[in-house]
Amino acid sequence: MHRLAVIGDIDSVVLFKAVGAHVFPVSSPAEAREALERLSDGEYTVICITEQFGGDLLPIVERYSSRPSPAVVFIPSNKGSEGIGMARLREVVKKAVGADILFAKEGN
Amino acid sequence: MELRVSPTRMQLLQLKRRLAMARRGHRLLKDKRDELMRQFMELVGTIRDLRLQVEGGLFKGMKDFLMARTSLSASEIEASVMYPKRTYEFEMVQSSIMGVKVPSFRRDASSGDDGDIYPYGLAMTSAELDAAIDSLDAVMPSLLELAEKEKSAELLAEEIEKTRRRVNALEYVLIPKLEDTIRYITMKLDEAERGNLTRLMKVKEMVRDKEVRA
Asked: Does any CB of chain A come closer than 8 Å to the CB of residue B143?
């Protein structure tokens, strides 16, 4: 069976405990990085990270992008979405297409 | 740029075969790239919508949760969700998009979804907490799907990049090189042929001269 881990600030992620996800509260980007590296060695297939730590973790997440697992998903914190998840999607498109075509045509 | 080969008929034949092969490979890879791209763009479209939906759902759950926190103390909340009724688990099967292995997450519907997901008694907690857990539970399937799709997109992007590189290497390096080399050998052989011809004519002339004088 594969499991799902959630990394983020405690206020945003404690709720995930109720649905049975494994929750790893962190309070700084360094802690988040440490948690991510610890959890990504195959124990968890899906790792959700709240966005306020996302920016610092992008280089690490990038490393996992060619491996089948873990799948890292950025989720908004309780302060709302900062658009890092979308920015990452845009990066992936840029890599595949060689140009930023996804959002350009809509003018944002 | 040409390859370094000796200009012989053998080499020419071999090079022509290689060129034909390279052209065929190029066409196939190009088709592969185009199809991968089509699949990828489709996937990206779904991801966009899905992500917006998931972000909205999660945010709503967290907001509900904030509401719940106003009526309960932190330790009460902590205690309420401390022992979940189940672990969130799912199956992963590998599927394949154009030969790219991508994960596919499947959640067993039977794994404890009997309607009662609240890991606490109803007496001590507020309805807001129920609402927060409800909205989070509602968005979990989409979150799982989003994880699957984003991972697939990443893997596809990787493959597309690789394929594009190969297509370009064939198109702009190997094929022109082979063509140049073939042209070089053909010219070299033609030149030798002409040399031979003139030599023959010259010899014939000399023989005729001798005969006339004799």
From this structure: yes
Q: Number of C-alpha atoms within 13 angstroms, CB side, residue A3?
A: 17
The pTM for the full model equals: 0.83
Cα–Cα distance measured from residue B17 to residue B23, given in angstroms and rounded to the nearest whole number = 10
Q: Which chain A residues touch B118 with a CB distance below 8 Å?
A: 18
**Which residue reads 């932190």 in tokens?**
B74
What's the pLDDT tens digit per position in B18-46?
999 999 999 999 999 999 999 999 999 99
Q: Can you read off the two tokens belonging to residue B19?
A: 């060129």
Q: What's the pLDDT tens digit per position in A67-100?
A: 887 899 999 888 877 788 888 888 888 888 876 6
Domain boundaries, chain B: 9-213
Cβ-defined contact of B150 to A89 (cutoff 8 Å): yes
ipTM: 0.87
The CATH class, in words, for A4-79 is alpha beta
What is the least distance, in Å, from the CA of A56 to any CA of chain B? Answer: 19
Does the beta-carbon distance from A85 to B88 stay under 8 Å? no
Is A71's Cβ below 8 Å from some Cβ in B? yes
* Residue in A11, A15, A93 closest to B81 by CB: A15
B:170-209 residues touching chain A, CB 8 A cutoff: none
* Cross-chain CB nearest to A15 (options B101, B102, B132): B132
The CA distance from B46 to B145, in Å, is 10
User: What does the radius of gyration of chain B's CA atoms come to, in whole angstroms?
Assistant: 36
Residues of chain A neighbouring B128 (CB-CB closer than 8 A): none
For B9-213, CATH number out of 3.40.1000.70, 3.30.420.140, 1.10.3470.10, 1.10.287.3240 equals 1.10.287.3240
